[in-house]
Design brief:
heterodimer, A: alpha/beta, 2 domains, 10-stranded mixed beta sheet, 10 helices, globular, B: alpha/beta
């Protein structure tokens, strides 16, 4: 039985198990129909031209991990940004782990999707926001059909959240292969401010496939800082679908740090529904082995006077493959749009591949849109400069690569987070130097 | 017997009937009836007195084409042509082959006059040899002698099939195979005529070679086939210009151009394309679905320059396969769309050899309600050490009802590759217009001035005579787009 059939048949069981709220029930049923019709995307589809799911889908995933697994905080401490106080929402094999988490209902809601979907007091919010940003593509629909658990964050009007929120999804690998479908919903009301860090981590070498959907709503003048850390085991695959709807004068930035995993696909979609919006998309990708990272971004400029800034840096070693597919659409009404996109790549190995497709679709005339894309090597003269001053080759290379990605790092607003990323980069590049010298 | 008349008999009878009266075998007629089947393909081949291998080659292409479906990936929308509603062969009224211009039908000459092209003038003033193609059959070839002395072969492809079969057989379909794509397959099956050019080893062609294509007879699709071979160390500059008289119904143009640059050779291929774009309401106009590709051997260079102002729908990607080491590919393009025109054009640079270089400069100008797309591929294969690419796509938008799109694909598999790609989209600055107005230049002129400046990088690459023509064309194409 292939994965699609398995998912379709387990949907029936799943629907009977959970509390059926009529609204969500209908949404789920519609979604499974879409998935049934479309199936998993193949390379024939333009958006999936450079990424094949075939290998990943071959595994015999268990769709609902059966047993509850407990893990000790000391074993997984390193996966958190632990040197500062944060809210934490932690899931183990898709199930909420209360003893590892630190949630709140005090002024803000940092809690669970499962309770938001079932408790009457959230009903209006769910009806207003749930599945309202996600598109009807097959993988998001699949997630919608099985949406049950994940993080639910609601920041009310004029509220500034004083500490970051960490959302961490662990998989224990107790089953031979696991498929997870977390669903997150984040609503930031007028004038609110929030920082969120998201991470998916597998704790064993067993294959994991995560098909995650995150919906973010930034209302008037809200500011959302979102960080994604992707540094997983070589058998873990992640399809991360993020949909962001922005209202007037809001600012949303998403930083994606892709350092590993077997296959990582980031579908990052911004919809600007108001004037004077700013959207920031930044990413650093450093991979090796046979890893595959695909960034697929969309910025949809619908209203006038908005901006978007994209900056993606990639360093590809060994047999790795990198894909960047960035799309900017500027609608007829979206005059005075400023949209920038940059994608710079370094190929370190002859067996590495980079495919990039920066795409502009522009229907308005009074706009400033530009994209730049480069593929190149480290500067020989800079290398020579450092070597001649006694810096070993490896360190010199690492310094240059760090400098290359620093543009993106410099806009990270949480210092501890920046340190952590720096450490990961040093680790990836195989050197033991702190770059903040 | 009669009462045992079965379905099988009927089928048999129908079969024989068609065979007996096969309506397309009348090769005397100047225009074939509408429709396409194997008989038509055979008849075209027969009409052109082609050898058997050519007929087989066409049939092979036709069989492949039948299995193919029309591509839909391009960013254009149009009513699909009815391939059975087109006549696949038509010849000008008077029988071809003249020794001098005097023998040419005066009406035909009048058409040329209207288009502003006088063969005599061209001959005397610009020293351009022309192989004029009017609806599929070449009627005049000039300067053949001068070229002949150098050993240069420049003739229509149907003549070449007869006179130089060894060259045609060796190179035809090597760069654009019959099954390459839907329109290339169709062209391979039914191409009526086109140009053939061969430059021998070490020869530098003394003049710009040029061909004018025109669509003259209503309802006939034109399927041109061009093959240019530059032997080792040779050089040729080839011009192709298209103008078409106004027509109310959609006409299909599906040409194939193959360039082969052998070691150390250089081919410069320039196009000015001005097919009928349809009227201001978007009615009518030519569909231009062209496959153009060049192959570079060692140290060879192919340079494509194009100015696209016409056609209702354009679908065109002149490409370079940089097979040999140190080979160079260039692509310079201006695409102007106005009213309801749609253009999806760009290039492919396939780097296979070491130290290969490619440059892409594409300027898109959209006005009215038109859609203008750049679609390009830069591919660096794993053995292409030190490959270098520079791409620049700039778009200029006039008015807020048009669209400009870029779809660049970049695929690198070699770490020594250096690729740069940049694209910008902007409009004509109000300050620029104001500056011109202030100095007494009216807005329409000012726009023409700015557009010419915007496209200068490409216009400079055109041969002189063409550059002047192209500049005028830009102005004409954008007429009435102010406001």
């Amino acid at each position: 039985m292939d994965l699609k059939e398995k998912l379709l048949s387990s949907f029936l069981v799943f629907e009977n198990q959970i509390d059926i709220d009529t609204y969500v029930h209908d949404v789920r049923n519609d979604a499974i129909k879409i998935f049934e019709e479309k199936g998993f995307p193949t390379k024939k589809e333009e958006a999936w031209k450079y990424t094949s799911l075939n290998k990943v889908l071959k595994e015999d995933y268990s769709v609902f991990p059966q047993q509850e697994n407990a893990i000790e905080y000391k074993d997984i401490k390193k996966y958190f940004i632990h040197d500062i106080d944060t809210y934490k929402i932690v899931f183990i094999d898709g199930k909420y782990s209360s003893h590892l988490s630190q949630t709140t209902h005090d002024g803000i809601d940092v809690c669970l999707m499962s309770s938001a979907l079932t408790k009457p007091k959230y009903r209006i919010l769910i009806e207003n926001y749930f599945n309202k940003a996600a598109t009807k593509d097959s993988l998001s629909s699949l997630n919608t059909a099985f949406s049950n658990e994940g993080a639910y964050i609601h920041i009310p009007k004029n509220k500034m959240v004083e500490k970051p929120i960490q959302i961490v999804h662990f998989s224990t690998g107790n089953e031979s292969a696991t498929m997870l479908q977390p669903r997150n919903l984040i609503v930031a009301d007028e004038n609110s401010y929030v920082q969120i860090i998201e991470r998916h981590q597998s704790l064993s070498d067993n294959p994991v496939l995560t098909n995650s959907v995150t919906e973010i709503f930034a209302n008037k003048r809200a500011i959302v800082d979102y960080y994604k850390i992707q540094n997983d085991n070589s058998n873990a695959s992640l399809i991360d679908n993020t949909f962001i709807k922005q209202k007037k004068e809001s600012v949303v930035s998403v930083h994606t740090f892709a350092f590993g995993g077997k296959l990582t696909r980031n579908n990052l979609n911004f919809f600007q529904e108001g004037e004077r919006i700013d959207s920031i998309l930044k990413g650093v990708t450093i991979i090796g082995e046979k890893q595959h990272v695909d960034h697929n971004t969309l910025v949809h400029h619908i209203e006038p006077n908005c901006e978007s800034h994209q900056d993606y840096k990639g360093i590809f070693g060994e047999n790795s493959t990198g894909v960047f597919n960035g799309k900017i659409i500027v609608e007829k009404e979206a005059q005075k749009t400023n949209a920038f996109q940059a994608n710079n790549n370094i190929l370190v190995s002859d067996k590495a591949t980079i495919n990039t497709k920066p795409q502009l679709e522009i229907f308005a005339d009074d706009v400033k849109c530009s994209h730049g894309c480069t593929i190149g090597q480290l500067d020989e003269s800079a290398m020579f400069y450092m070597r001649s001053r006694g810096i070993p080759e490896k360190e010199a290379k690492a310094l240059l690569m760090y400098a290359f990605s620093n543009n993106v790092l410099s806009s990270v607003k949480i210092p501890e987070m920046k340190q952590r990323i720096t450490k990961i980069i040093a680790n990836k590049l195989g050197v033991d130097i702190g770059f903040d010298l | 017997m009669s009462n045992k008349y079965t379905e099988d008999d009927l089928r048999e009878e129908l079969k024989t009937k068609e065979y007996e009266y096969g309506f397309y075998t009348d090769i005397e007629s100047d225009t074939f009836p509408n429709g396409l089947n194997e008989d038509i393909v055979r008849a075209i081949s027969k009409k052109k007195e082609e050898p058997q291998w050519m007929t087989d080659w066409r049939l092979e292409a036709f069989r492949v084409w039948k299995e193919m479906t029309e591509p839909e990936w391009a960013n254009v929308h149009y009513q699909k042509p009815d391939f059975q509603g087109i006549s696949y062969y038509s010849a000008p009224n008077s029988k071809p082959k003249y020794d001098s211009l005097d023998e040419v039908d005066p009406e035909l000459l009048a058409t040329f006059e209207k288009l502003g092209i006088s063969l005599d003038e061209q001959k005397k003033l610009s020293g351009v040899a022309m192989d004029v193609v009017v609806d599929s059959v070449s009627v005049a070839t000039t300067f053949k002698k001068t070229l002949g002395e150098k050993g240069i072969i420049f003739m229509s492809i149907s003549e070449a099939i007869k006179e130089h079969p060894e060259l045609v057989k060796k190179y035809l379909g090597t760069v654009v195979p019959q099954k390459d794509n839907f329109y290339a397959a169709l062209n391979s099956a039914v191409f009526s005529d086109g140009s053939f050019c061969y430059i021998p080893k070490g020869v530098r062609c003394p003049m710009e070679l040029s061909t004018y294509f025109r669509i003259n007879q209503a309802g006939t699709g034109q399927f041109e086939r061009t093959l240019v071979i530059a032997d080792e160390g040779s050089y040729v500059s080839y011009l192709e210009g298209c103008t078409a008289p106004s027509r109310d119904e959609n006409q299909l143009h599906a040409a194939v151009v193959e360039l082969i640059a052998l070691d150390d050779a250089e081919i410069k291929y320039s196009t000015v394309q001005n097919w009928y774009p349809g009227n201001a309401e978007g009615k009518g106009g030519v569909y231009n679905f062209v496959t153009k590709r060049g192959l570079c051997e060692k140290n060879a260079k192919i340079s494509w320059t194009q100015v696209e102002t016409g056609s209702a729908v354009t679908w065109k990607y002149p490409s370079c396969i940089l097979k040999g080491d140190n080979s160079v590919g260039e692509f310079y393009s201006i695409a102007v769309t106005n009213n309801y025109q749609q253009a999806d054009t760009g290039t492919k640079m396939i780097h296979l050899g070491k130290n290969t270089k490619s440059t892409i400069i594409s300027k898109g100008i959209s006005a009215g309600k038109s859609q203008n797309s750049y679609r390009g591929l830069v591919q660096i294969n794993s053995r292409a050490e030190n490959a270098r690419n520079f791409s620049q796509c700039d778009s200029l938008l006039m008015g807020n009802e048009c669209g400009a799109h870029t779809f660049p694909y970049i695929e690198a598999k070699n770490k020594s590759a250096k690729i740069e790609h940049e694209a910008t989209t902007s409009k004509i600055g109000e300050d620029q217009i104001f500056y011109c107005n202030q100095r007494g230049i009216d807005t329409e002129k000012a726009i023409a001035l700015i557009v010419n400046g915007f496209s200068k990088e490409v216009l400079n690459k055109l041969p002189m005579e063409f550059a002047v023509e192209a500049q005028k064309l830009l102005e004409i194409s954008l007429e009435g787009s102010v406001g």
